[in-house]
Each structure stands twice: as C-alpha cells, then as structure tokens.
DNA sequence: GTTTAGGGTTCG
C-alpha cells in the first residue's frame, strides 16, 4: 500500500472479477439518489477513463444515509473509487460499493491546481499521489472532444405520440415540491407536444389548467420560455427529498428512460426509478441542434403552434387583427402589461355552462367561460355580452349556437368517445384588476373574433 | 450481517 494506490484501468476490469479495485473515472451519467428495494439508498453512475470510453462502466453506490451518496455537480466531474468490488453481470463489468471496504471522492473536472475533493465518503483517505492521477484525467478530458452522442431512444416532445418512454434532451426550467414529499420537474425542449384527443364527456370542471399544481408563482412562470411546451415531470416517491439531490436547473440534460403519458389531455412525464440523467455541456451537439431548430422555427413561423401553417384555414376570423402576429398563451400569462389584446391560435377544450340553453344569463346577455389551450398553456377566458354577439352572430337560434359550439369543441356527430377540437384563431383580451398583483389578478376574455359558420 | 442495482423500443 504505502503512500500510493494502484488504480486499475477500466479496460482491465475483466482481470479483477470479484476483487476489490481502485478506479478513477469521468462521470458521464448519474441517477438521482433514491431509495432501493433493500435497506439502503443508491445512486448509479456511468464512468469512462483514458483506456475505455465504451462501454461506459456502471458504478453502484449504496449508503444508509441518502445525503452520503455522491452528488454530482457538473458533467465530466471526476470520481475516485477506492476498494469497489468488480462484478460481472449480464455480460458487463460493474463496480459495486462495499459497506465494509469502499470509499469515494468527487473532484471538479476542470483544470486547476485545486485537488481538494468537493465531496468524500466518511472513510476516504486522501493520498498526495491521487493528485497526479486527477491532474492527468483532467488534462485528458479537457483535450478530448466529447459528446453525449445520439441515443436510439431520443425523441423530441413533438414526436412523443406512440412512445411509452423516451430519452429527452431538454432544459430543466424548474424543480419544486408541490405538496409534502411530492416533487415536480419542469422541462422544455423548444418543440410543441402534440395536441391530445379528449374524452367526449370531459367538461370544464374536469379539465385542469395545469397538472399537479394549483399554479406556479408568476415569478417562476416569468422565466419560462414563451414558445414550446413545458413538460411537467412528476417524480417517483423512491426519490426521497428529490430537490435536495437534483441541483441541475437552467441547464441541458438528457433524461434517459422518461415515461410519458397523457392525463386529462395534458402530457405528463414520470421520473421512474429506472430514469438516468446525463448532464450536457452547452456545446454538446444535441444541445446546439435543439437551439438551432428552435431559432429556425421562430424565424420561419413566429409564435404559431408548429402544427399550423400561416395559410391554415380556421373556423374563425379576427377582423381587426389580420396582420397582427400571433403569440402564445404563455406570453399572455406572463405579459408585464396591465391590459392588452393578443392574437392566438388555440383549441376550445370546454365551455361552462356546458348546455347552450344556459349560455345566456337570466337577464339576457351571453355569459360563459371557455377553457382554451395551445402548446404552451391552458387558460379560462370569458366570452360574454357584445363580444359573444360578435362571436356567434346576432339573433341566433339556441340550436344553431349549440351546433357551432360543438364544432369548436371538436364534437363529431358520429358515435365517437373522443373529440379533437380544431385549431382556431382568436383575439384574447386581458386585464389585471389589481395593479400591484398584475399576474395574480389577471382575467382573460375573447374579443374581436367571429365564427364563420 | 444481507440486500439493494446492474436499462430499454419500434418503425421504416
């Protein structure tokens, strides 16, 4: 032993099966610390070194205390594993933590003269010779072009249909605890998740504006992009105190094995115990590609939902706003103005009251609330009085109004259990009742919009 | 004192 330790190259792992080794590697992937089905908490890392970039070697770390597990700060950080056991499983070699013998230390991957680990396990002993190995790995890492590469499972949000689980290259926008022990992640990849068919019977009372939330604070929403879907990702309960163990926010990641499904017409991601995180550098090819696609989209189509072309035919027209640019519901939600009117392309998801005979209040004028959606958000908007007269046309039979509303809601005359509301252009006015709380007191109404039919 | 985890698909 002495003052140095023997570090095994990853390519030589096969010679050490069932033995304890020391390894030094770049961490290219990690799982967020979580509860196991045994008695411990665990995190799974993937490491590479100068001798072997593929296959990446998986490292399983177990701890009685979740806070003691390695907490990676950045891509390409370095881990020194001491006395980890080499196991051969499913034709691959693994490094596995042993409670009696193993220890580890985490180092910043950037080149510097600082060789103090930023995290160590309790029994880790630093040896001066470690610095030499860390320096070598840093130099190699910073002189070798790396890329997270492409994944066979990578799917942008716009192509999510038909996939149960995907690898998602995305920016993490926000992490929060929505109720005691229930964590949610908000991610964005610059594309629009596809519109979802709704069950025919789903009415305004059943359709939430957001999943898992009564509403994000405006200060958080304000930092979200105005275009592209923000996917809500709920966190499996195995991730105890998730927010304390996942610190990557406003950075790009590849989330591997993210489960996706729809709930009440909204897309929802689920971070399962099988999910892994790959932190991506800003010059990773997949990040550059996403940002380039996004810029091209904005340049070519502005803030239209991506399934709409500028020449699309709608059931509606907006008489004084033909030349105005479209914007998104997220833009309206986060506008700093006290009042204004914007043109949007939306779907009419529901109306309240649901029956046409109640669209008018007892005193006569129309008074209803519609649930509107675009790829960025859902809102409730009033449709009433003169705006509703203009919308439907004046002096109409209730049956005609009902028929028109059904068409907007995508209710087909066929015996069909689902409906698919068509995209519709409309003007949405907004005003804030309280100037000291412009987002919290904001109301929306449809105006300056006419149905064709 | 032992176990935990250890990746994966479907359509051209």
Specify the structural class: mainly beta
What low-confidence regions span 5 or more consecutive residues with pLDDT below 50? none
The CATH architecture assignment of the largest domain turns out to be Beta Barrel
CATH topology of the largest domain: OB fold (Dihydrolipoamide Acetyltransferase, E2P)
Q: Quick one: CATH class of the largest domain? A: Mainly Beta
Number of helices: 7
Proportion of helical residues: 10-25%
Distance between the termini: 86 Å
Number of strands: 24
> What is the average per-residue confidence, as pLDDT, rounded to a whole number?
93
How much of the sequence lies in strands comes to: 35-45%
What overall form do the CA principal axes indicate?
elongated
Radius of gyration: 27 Å
Quick one: biggest sheet? 6 strands, mixed
Q: How many structural domains can be distinguished in the coordinates?
A: 3
CATH evolutionary superfamily of the largest domain: Nucleic acid-binding proteins
Domain Telomeric single stranded DNA binding POT1/Cdc13: 7-142
GO molecular function, one term: DNA binding
Family: Belongs to the telombin family.
InterPro entries: NA-bd_OB-fold, POT1, POT1A/B-like_OB, POT1PC, Telomer_end-bd_POT1/Cdc13
